[in-house]
Specification:
Length: 119
Protein backbone atom coordinates (compact mmCIF):
# COMPACT_ATOMS: atom_id res chain seq x y z
CA UNK A 1 0.00 0.00 0.00
CA UNK A 2 2.80 2.44 0.84
CA UNK A 3 4.53 1.82 -2.43
CA UNK A 4 1.42 2.64 -4.45
CA UNK A 5 0.73 5.73 -2.28
CA UNK A 6 4.30 6.93 -2.87
CA UNK A 7 3.90 6.40 -6.60
CA UNK A 8 0.64 8.34 -6.52
CA UNK A 9 2.32 11.27 -4.72
CA UNK A 10 5.20 11.23 -7.19
CA UNK A 11 2.81 11.19 -10.13
CA UNK A 12 0.81 14.07 -8.64
CA UNK A 13 3.94 16.14 -8.08
CA UNK A 14 5.12 15.51 -11.66
CA UNK A 15 1.73 16.58 -13.00
CA UNK A 16 1.80 19.75 -10.88
CA UNK A 17 5.28 20.64 -12.17
CA UNK A 18 4.15 20.06 -15.76
CA UNK A 19 1.01 22.14 -15.19
CA UNK A 20 2.87 25.10 -13.71
CA UNK A 21 5.65 24.89 -16.29
CA UNK A 22 3.02 25.02 -19.07
CA UNK A 23 1.41 28.16 -17.67
CA UNK A 24 4.78 29.86 -17.22
CA UNK A 25 5.62 29.21 -20.87
CA UNK A 26 2.24 30.57 -21.95
CA UNK A 27 2.85 33.82 -20.08
CA UNK A 28 6.18 34.55 -21.79
CA UNK A 29 6.15 37.33 -24.35
CA UNK A 30 6.81 36.34 -27.93
CA UNK A 31 10.07 37.63 -29.36
CA UNK A 32 9.96 40.86 -31.28
CA UNK A 33 7.06 42.44 -29.40
CA UNK A 34 7.39 45.98 -28.17
CA UNK A 35 6.44 46.97 -24.62
CA UNK A 36 3.33 49.15 -24.32
CA UNK A 37 3.71 52.93 -24.45
CA UNK A 38 4.44 54.52 -21.14
CA UNK A 39 6.99 51.87 -20.19
CA UNK A 40 4.56 50.15 -17.81
CA UNK A 41 3.89 46.50 -17.44
CA UNK A 42 0.68 46.80 -19.44
CA UNK A 43 -1.59 46.33 -16.44
CA UNK A 44 -4.34 48.84 -15.76
CA UNK A 45 -5.19 50.07 -12.31
CA UNK A 46 -8.88 50.80 -11.92
CA UNK A 47 -8.27 53.47 -9.30
CA UNK A 48 -5.94 55.52 -11.51
CA UNK A 49 -7.13 58.94 -12.63
CA UNK A 50 -7.90 59.41 -16.30
CA UNK A 51 -4.98 60.17 -18.60
CA UNK A 52 -4.55 63.91 -19.15
CA UNK A 53 -4.81 63.72 -22.95
CA UNK A 54 -7.95 61.55 -22.98
CA UNK A 55 -11.15 63.35 -23.96
CA UNK A 56 -14.19 62.76 -21.78
CA UNK A 57 -17.33 61.42 -23.41
CA UNK A 58 -20.22 63.87 -23.54
CA UNK A 59 -22.98 63.17 -21.04
CA UNK A 60 -26.61 63.11 -22.16
CA UNK A 61 -28.47 65.21 -19.60
CA UNK A 62 -31.71 65.39 -21.55
CA UNK A 63 -34.87 64.00 -19.97
CA UNK A 64 -35.76 60.40 -20.84
CA UNK A 65 -38.19 59.95 -23.71
CA UNK A 66 -41.86 59.63 -22.87
CA UNK A 67 -43.99 57.11 -24.71
CA UNK A 68 -46.80 58.67 -26.69
CA UNK A 69 -49.67 57.16 -28.65
CA UNK A 70 -48.74 53.77 -30.12
CA UNK A 71 -49.24 52.97 -33.77
CA UNK A 72 -51.54 50.08 -34.64
CA UNK A 73 -48.54 47.80 -35.33
CA UNK A 74 -46.98 48.65 -31.96
CA UNK A 75 -50.28 48.00 -30.20
CA UNK A 76 -50.58 44.65 -31.96
CA UNK A 77 -47.03 43.77 -30.86
CA UNK A 78 -47.95 44.70 -27.28
CA UNK A 79 -51.07 42.50 -27.43
CA UNK A 80 -48.95 39.58 -28.65
CA UNK A 81 -46.52 40.22 -25.81
CA UNK A 82 -49.32 40.36 -23.24
CA UNK A 83 -50.76 37.14 -24.70
CA UNK A 84 -47.35 35.45 -24.19
CA UNK A 85 -47.01 34.62 -27.88
CA UNK A 86 -43.27 35.12 -27.64
CA UNK A 87 -42.15 34.35 -31.20
CA UNK A 88 -44.75 36.50 -32.94
CA UNK A 89 -44.32 39.26 -30.35
CA UNK A 90 -40.53 39.26 -30.79
CA UNK A 91 -40.84 39.72 -34.55
CA UNK A 92 -43.37 42.54 -34.19
CA UNK A 93 -41.51 44.25 -31.36
CA UNK A 94 -38.27 44.17 -33.34
CA UNK A 95 -39.97 46.12 -36.14
CA UNK A 96 -41.14 48.72 -33.61
CA UNK A 97 -37.69 48.91 -32.00
CA UNK A 98 -35.97 49.44 -35.34
CA UNK A 99 -38.34 52.29 -36.20
CA UNK A 100 -40.14 50.62 -39.11
CA UNK A 101 -43.56 51.46 -37.66
CA UNK A 102 -43.07 55.20 -37.13
CA UNK A 103 -43.41 55.15 -33.34
CA UNK A 104 -41.76 57.74 -31.10
CA UNK A 105 -38.57 57.13 -29.08
CA UNK A 106 -40.44 56.22 -25.89
CA UNK A 107 -42.39 53.46 -27.62
CA UNK A 108 -39.19 52.22 -29.25
CA UNK A 109 -37.59 51.87 -25.82
CA UNK A 110 -40.61 50.02 -24.46
CA UNK A 111 -40.50 47.72 -27.48
CA UNK A 112 -36.82 47.07 -26.86
CA UNK A 113 -37.53 46.14 -23.25
CA UNK A 114 -40.39 43.83 -24.19
CA UNK A 115 -38.27 42.31 -26.95
CA UNK A 116 -35.56 41.47 -24.42
CA UNK A 117 -38.15 39.74 -22.25
CA UNK A 118 -39.45 37.78 -25.24
CA UNK A 119 -36.01 36.58 -26.16
Amino acid sequence: MRLSFARLCLLASVLMVMLFAGTADAQKKPKGTKPPKGGGSGSIELDEPAQPGAAAKPVDNSPPPVAGQMTELAAQAKRLFDGEKWQEAALALYRVYKGETGDDEGNKQLAQCHLAICL
